[in-house]
Amino acid sequence: MKKAKLFAAGSAAAAAAAATASAAVFIKKKGICVPCLLRRGTAAVQMRASTGKKYDNGLALTPPMGWSCWNLFQHRVNEKLIYEMAVALKESGLADAGYQYVNLDDCWQSSMRDRDGRLTGDLSRFPSGIPDLVQKVNALGLKLGIYSSNGTLTCEDLPASLGNEALDAETFAQWGVEYLKYDFCHNIPLPTRAPDIDKISISAVGSSDELVFEAENGQLFGMARIEKDDQLESGKYVTGLCSGNGKLYFPDIPVPEDGEYVLTIGIRKGGDMEKYLEIKVNDTEVYDLLVPATKGWTHEGRMQLRVFLKAGSNSMILYNPIGSRYDSAIRQYTKMGELLKRASAKVAEETGKPEKKIVFSICEWGRNLPYKWGAEAGNLWRTTPDIQANWASIMGIYEINVHLWKYAGPGGWNDPDMLEVGNGNLTLTENVAHFSLWCMMAAPLLLGNDLRRFVVDGKADTSNPVLKILANKDLIAIDQDPLGIPCRRVYTNGIIDVLARPLKGNRLAVCFLNKALNSMRVKIRLSELAEKPDFAFPAADKYFVRDAWSGEETVTTDEIKGSVPSHGVRVYVVEQHHGE
Ligand code: GAL
Predict the structure, then answer these.
(1) Which of 67, 68, 69, 70 best tests ligand 1's pocket when mutated (most atoms within 8 Å of CB)?
(2) How far apart are the first and last CA of the chain?
(3) Which residue ranges have their beta carbon within 6 Å of ligand 1?
(4) Which terminus of the chain has a lower count of CB atoms within 10 Å, N or C?
(5) What angle, 0 to 180 degrees and rounded to 10, lies between the N-to-C axes of helices 370-377 and 325-351?
């Protein structure tokens, strides 16, 4: 260690710091075996990468329900339209049926961030500002959702959040937004390269004293190794931290009191590539650093960030865990999810008002297998490309999503995209099928049509056939069943599918889907479904069967059968029959 001036020379902390650095050298001299260190280092880092820990913000215990402007209006949005839709959600009775979120999608933003760098609503289409819209929507008893992209721009090329995550999360929380759909356009993956490091130093905020730790004195794991460079003051640097291959570890960084400190990372400049580094402090907090492609007259670069340290000894691990685009997507989405949680908690603390938590909707179209990590990063994850208002699109999306049932559950849902019910050229039968399949799959129910059509003179037009579909209580109850177990396809011959979904109270929802161009008769024996161990659907002498669309109730000893129209479904809710 060359300098240890953070604290008065000769202080206990300075002595401890000096001891730490030499202890690291001492340990290496003693020859601690690399495999032991490796195991320790790897385990510590994996804690964050894959803990199996749910996102767990307490939201979306059943799939979110609401309305979004994208499917029908795309860029043609303004504050009047959104408010009218919120009013229609209420007056149509759909809000009472469970639809709570009114979601802005792309194109709510101005192309300009404000003077403080904050996102701002389109200046002439949302002249009253988003916070005003939030208040109005909240006054109806509804929640406002918003949209951004995990990229430099949104899909419609407006400002987005990559690189501005903390500020944007804070802005949304301050506005009182309660849902964020986070898209993937203009994404830039995190680099797999890590900077070479010659030292790190800690200083108190506002002080010029730096407590310096030479990288060569840190503990090295994996491929991390020391190389020479005479043009560096220290003459040496640590390299090999790329792609999760190596780690540089400082076990004991002493500071006098809890608080924010400046961490300066001395990097060796060079290489025409951006680089990435994570710094894990005390095995809990993870900070990240993007290092630009660097070249210059000098070799020594200084990258700074503010870190929170606790009084006494602190540990720090420096590494780059990104080995692929897949890793990058996980990190970037996880980061935004964490920031949203912090932002809403911080706003609640500052205002003394109840926390408005934010549903986090991951929308990277299924590219990086989000069903495998989505439940740790957010509340729902798109599993497919964009939906369109035609039967082929709905079938294509269903085919992808139906296989993914085992990944979804309370707090984290597969998202086969927003509903097109009432849009495009879908027939009423197809609308019924589309809605039923989404309910069977425990999909979020985000309406995408013009809700104003459901209201006449401020009242629900209960004769409207599309409203009848979207307000069907039996179907909504299937979607929102508290067990949160999506359906499984228990039979298919390519034309007829049979889906079954366990419901609370040992009940089962059964759906027949007919993809053919003519109607088909379908039947299934309930005793076969009762044999499936994890359905918790006990075999019985008699079953009570309710047709969820017609409301017709029957009793059967085993078989349910029905005629299913072309591109249509039949949906039944079945339970053991107790009466005579
Ligand atoms: C797509 C997304 C759509 C919509 C659109 C907005 O990437 O899948 O649902 O949000 O961007 O530009």
Answers:
(1) 70
(2) 86
(3) 70, 105-106, 154-156, 183, 185, 363, 365, 386
(4) C
(5) 20
d(CA 486, CA 443): 8
Considering the domain delimited by 12-30+191-321, tell me its CATH architecture: Sandwich (2.60)
513-555 confidence digits (pLDDT tens): 999 999 999 999 999 999 887 788 999 999 999 999 999 999 9
Cα-to-centroid distance, 401 and ligand 1 (Å): 18
Q: Are 213 and 391 in contact (CB under 8 A)?
A: no
- Residues 347-400 have pLDDT tens digits of 999 999 999 999 999 999 999 999 999 999 999 999 999 999 999 999 999 999
What tokens were used for 448? 């995408």
184 C-alpha vs ligand 1 centroid, how far in Å? 9
pTM of the model: 0.91
The DSSP call for residue 433 is H
**How far is it, in rounded angstroms, from Cα 342 to Cα 374?**
18
- The tokens describing 32, both together, are 């601690």
Return the closest-CA partner of residue 317 out of 259, 262, 244: 244
CATH 3.20.20.70, domain 65-188+328-479, yes or no: yes
Distance between CA 436 and CA 259 in Å, rounded? 54
Pick the CATH number of 488-576 from 3.40.50.300, 3.40.50.720, 1.10.8.60, 2.60.40.1180: 2.60.40.1180
Q: To which residue do tokens 């998202």 refer? A: 415
Where would I find the H helices in 447-563?
Answer: 465-470, 473-479, 526-530
Name the residue ranges covered by the structural domains of the chain.
12-30+191-321, 65-188+328-479, 488-576
